[in-house]
Design a protein that fits this description.
The protein is an alpha/beta fold. The chain has four helices and six strands, in the order αβββααβαββ. Helix 4 links the parallel strand 4 and strand 5. Helix 3 packs parallel to helix 4.
């Protein structure tokens, strides 16, 4: 299976978990992958119609690579710095050529050393400057958090 198919399968799995845990009203049977330049996922949300979701992981690419493609030949170490704020800024600068509303789902998948509370503070500071094209921004860490518009 190629790298792109693996990425799609992982995104669908993560998004289905988000749909199951959140109270967004996503219709599970409607979830499907899209190819760039479109956002990663399209789905139907009860009472809202079609919505697009872009997904991004809040961890260093090296960590994601190590977790998703373990080296069967032996043990190796991975060193990196936190790039989650840069990742968010990069996503906020993108424009998606779709008519439907677009939302951003940032997920940790257990691959960050920062607690949700710290990520929420950092991300909300960035979102005060710009929300890009995103109608709403979510964090799926230990729990589901709506970051933008900010809710208590």
């Amino acid at each position: 299976m190629n790298k792109e198919k693996n990425k799609e399968r992982r995104e669908i799995t993560i998004f289905r978990e988000f749909a199951r845990k959140s109270e967004v009203g996503i219709e599970p049977a409607s979830v499907s992958s899209c190819r760039p330049p479109e956002p990663d996922i399209i789905c139907a949300v009860r009472g809202k119609g079609c919505v697009r979701f872009e997904l991004t992981e809040a961890c260093a690419p090296e960590f994601a690579q190590a977790i998703n493609n373990p080296n069967p030949e032996g043990v190796y170490s991975c060193w990196s710095s936190d790039v989650s704020e840069d990742t968010l800024r990069k996503k906020l600068s993108k424009s998606y050529p779709v008519p439907e509303p677009v939302e951003l789902l940032i997920f940790t998948d257990g691959a960050t050393a920062k607690p949700d509370s710290q990520l929420i503070r950092e991300f909300r500071e960035i979102l005060k400057e710009s929300q890009g094209q995103f109608r709403r921004v979510w964090l799926m860490g230990d729990e589901i958090h709506q970051l933008w518009p900010e809710t208590s």
